[in-house]
Specification:
about 400 residues, TIM Barrel, binds zinc ion, 2 domains, Urease, subunit C, domain 1, alpha/beta, eight-stranded parallel β-sheet, seven-stranded mixed β-sheet
């Protein structure tokens, strides 16, 4: 991480201010961590200039969905045994790990995110262990305290947090009681914060929501989660959440692998944001989200890695490169937007992160690449064609 005086110009061969705007030979003026000017050509005035090289200065990436607390489980879970088996292994393996091992995994994940050009994340914390390391790091983003099961005692509330970076998440419709989900959503609405929930991810989730039966019902019984009062069956997980008043523009729905056309109409009408994690989806479900339809309906679609328990890295350049390969109908600009501007919007950070523009934070990455024409710059970014390591810049 570079350290710079309070007032500095940053220069590079290219500046990508947002996925649609590329400046050749660009300079950015930064004052106390905020951008005050972005222009082409030479810096003006007495402030020092940091020349990063012929590559590109671009917004730091936004990983809209990850679970740092599962980092210690990397390579510990089966790759091909199916989703339910994976969940059972995860619960068992996590319970056997000591807090020191979980904390080491969290710190390694934070270091990886920063080293690979991530500026802000949507961190989903089930145990609460990632809170201190997350807030002690230079990462921006939202720390979501995740809840599941039935409500025990008082409804969770968002703790007073001067940074405004704490919110709440419900785990999923098939794991979390409707009362608890509705209470969590109300608490986030009260504080105007984003609310995150895994939605319409697995066949087991759909089967359970549509019937109240199946292998997921057995798992809930084993875990002593009483679902006898839940309002089931429902037509789909998306319909179920709509009936609970969970879906609105501050809701970030994660995965949506199983959503049908009626679901997409509902999600679009409710203006939810969607986080997709293609590498995790491919590994756990052998299936990819319907990005063609998501983009056609105008949903705000952003990108996340999910955790190291279901993905090989937390590197968002890897996730973009995978998306570029598997969704060749998406333009490079669309993929970059999913990892920058759209993610910022989904986390309620659209006035601070995801762009290099006046008044935004200087949350930037220098990526070493060679490009003769502007058209190739974004393509090289989303396919990670670099000639060295990326460097996070965060004054
Ligand atoms: Zn997740």
């Amino acid at each position: 991480m570079a350290t710079n005086p309070a007032e500095t110009w940053h220069r590079a061969g290219w500046v990508v201010t947002d996925p649609e705007t590329i400046i050749r030979d660009g300079t950015i003026h930064v004052s106390n961590g905020r951008i005050t000017a972005v222009k082409s050509g030479k810096a003006i005035g007495p402030d020092p200039v940091v020349d990063h090289g012929p590559g590109v200065l671009m917004p730091a990436l936004i990983n809209a969905h990850t679970h740092l607390e599962l980092g210690a489980l990397k390579e510990m879970l089966p790759r091909t045994a199916g989703f339910e088996t994976w969940v059972r292994h995860l619960i068992k393996a996590r319970a056997e790990l000591r807090p020191e091992a979980l904390l080491a995994g969290i710190q390694a994940g934070i270091d990886e995110l920063i080293d690979t050009g991530c500026g802000a994340v949507g961190e989903i914390a089930t145990l609460g262990l990632s809170k201190a390391p997350f807030f002690a790091s230079i990462l921006g983003g939202i720390w979501f305290e995740e809840h599941l099961g039935n409500i025990l005692g008082d409804f969770p509330t968002i703790p007073n947090d001067p940074s405004g970076r704490t919110s709440l998440a419900g785990h999923a419709p098939h794991t979390t009681s409707p009362d608890l989900l509705a209470g969590l959503k109300r608490a986030t609405m009260h504080r105007n914060k984003p609310f995150s929930i895994h939605l319409s991810e697995s066949n087991q989730e759909v089967e359970f929501i549509q019937s109240g039966k199946g292998s997921w019902a057995d798992l809930l019984r084993e875990r002593k989660i009483d679902f006898s009062s839940w309002p089931l069956p429902a037509r789909s997980p998306v319909d179920y959440l709509e009936q609970l008043n969970i879906l609105d523009e501050k809701t970030l729905a994660v995965h949506l692998l199983q959503a049908d056309s009626q679901d997409f109409e509902t999600l679009t009408a409710c203006r939810v944001s969607v986080a997709v994690c293609p590498r995790s989806n491919q590994r756990l479900h052998d299936r990819l989200p319907d990005l063609m339809r998501m983009h056609a309906t105008g949903l705000n679609v952003c990108l996340g890695t999910d955790s190291l328990a279901s993905c090989d890295s937390l590197n968002m350049f890897d996730e973009m490169a995978y998306a570029a390969k598997r969704f060749s109908f998406l333009s490079p600009e669309t993929i970059l937007a999913m990892a920058t501007t759209n993610g910022a919007r989904a986390l309620g950070l659209e006035t601070e992160y995801g762009r290099l523009a006046p008044e935004y934070r200087f949350s930037s990455v220098y990526a070493p690449l060679t490009a003769a024409r502007p058209e190739t710059v974004i393509e090289k970014i989303v396919t990670a064609q670099f000639c060295g390591k990326v460097e996070i810049l965060n004054d």
